[in-house]
């Protein structure tokens, strides 16, 4: 049996009213989004200017992007109040 993720931490995000996503509800959530964008920008600049352009470097760039983005999703999931599932806007 897999261990359950501890979800009783301070929430930085809340489940949105529509779709399968979360939105920041305080400064820590917004800072996490800003940090993600900054890390992604630095990764892109390093890959663009420092590494020779080849098929291997493109694959490395995509893998790096996926790892950075997966880390963001895990952190958002751990810091979201409520459950993630597809939601429809209630009228």
Mind explaining what this structure looks like?
It is built from two helices and three strands, in the order ββααβ. It is mainly α. It has a domain of 57 residues. The protein has a three-stranded mixed β-sheet with strand order 2-1-3. A hairpin with a 6-residue loop joins strand 1 and strand 2. Helix 1 runs antiparallel to helix 2. The longest helix is centred in the middle third of the chain and has 24 residues. The termini are far apart. The mean pLDDT is 82.
SSE inventory with pairings:
Layout: E1 13-15, E2 22-24, H1 27-50, H2 55-78, E3 80-81
Parallel strand pairs: 1-3
Antiparallel strand pairs: 1-2
Helix pairs in contact: 1-2
What would the keywords be for this entry?
about 90 residues; mainly alpha
Distance between the termini: 39 Å
- Low-confidence regions: none
Main beta-sheet annotation:
3 strands, mixed
Could you give the order of strands across the largest sheet?
A: 2-1-3
> Which series of helices and strands comes N to C?
EEHHE
Instruction: Count up the helices.
Output: 2
Task: Say how many strands there are.
Answer: 3
- Please state the overall shape, judged from the principal axes of the Cα atoms: elongated
Helix content: 40-55%
Strand percentage lies at 5-15%
What's the gyration radius in Å?
17 Å
The chain-level structural class is: mainly alpha
- Summed over residues and divided by their number, the pLDDT gives a mean of 82
